[in-house]
Amino acid sequence: MTRLLPVPPAAQLAGPISDYQQAVAAKRRHLALGVVLIATALVISAVGAEVRPVTLWNHIGNFTSYFDRLLKLDTGARVWTDPQEWFWGLARWGRLLGETLLIAYVATLTGVVGAFAAAAPASRNLMRRAWVRFAVRRSLEFCRTVPDIVFALIFVAAFGLGALPGVLAIAIHTTGALGKLFTEVVENIDMAPVEGVASTGASWLSQVRFAVTPQVLSNLVSYALLRFEVNVRGATVIGFVGAGGIGQDLIVAIRKFYYSDVSAMLLMIIATVMAIDMLSARLRYRLLAMESRP
After folding, report:
1. Rounded distance, CA 115 to CA 137, Å?
2. How far apart are CA 204 and CA 190, in angstroms?
3. Can you list the positions of beta strands (E) in the chain?
4. For residue 20, is it within any domain?
């Protein structure tokens, strides 16, 4: 059934229409002002950092030509015309790539344990002592602020070349990064189960174990899987300073201009990271789906 709605007289609509137009105009002015401010800040930042678009334009050819050289063998033929020659070091590179994965795994697991241990003391809803929260939060900030490659350089000087400096460097950085994420998850939990466990006379650790952990476990695992993906890339980079893994051979190939070797190792790393991304994404989706079930 169709109903006809009466249209108010134009005099009555004039006021609301004028208010609407003014609101739209104000919104557009604010948007334009925001764009101008962002553009101004971008220009000032570019000038301060000495970013020169002209230099980028004049030398962009060097960038593209380098990638062209990566796809050529020493004979001048394209790499895909002779896969055996292209991947001549597959056995060694595969072993080093496996070492990179192990470094990332051990470092991630160690960092997850450290971050989980620090999350509850750093949370405002669980830790009432302000000095404890302050100390834990500042420690986590230190761990994630110092780049992992700087930690790697320090540990290489202390312990020598190998996987140990890489594990320690990534583990410390992972502890700081995941510690902040875990803390934010813990601070958003439902406090009713915690109060219920506390009413039984349970200790603080028991409250964390039985009331907090079940609520946040799936999110923590999801963040840990995501961090593992990041650490695989990080373990490759810190190999540049001698901290183990395929990064050591990759930086040597780059410095000696072994272009086909560089492209072969990069392809192996990319394929490995893509596989890890897909597998971990599926695991995260399953965990989130299990959490959403009643």
Report:
1. 11
2. 16
3. none
4. no
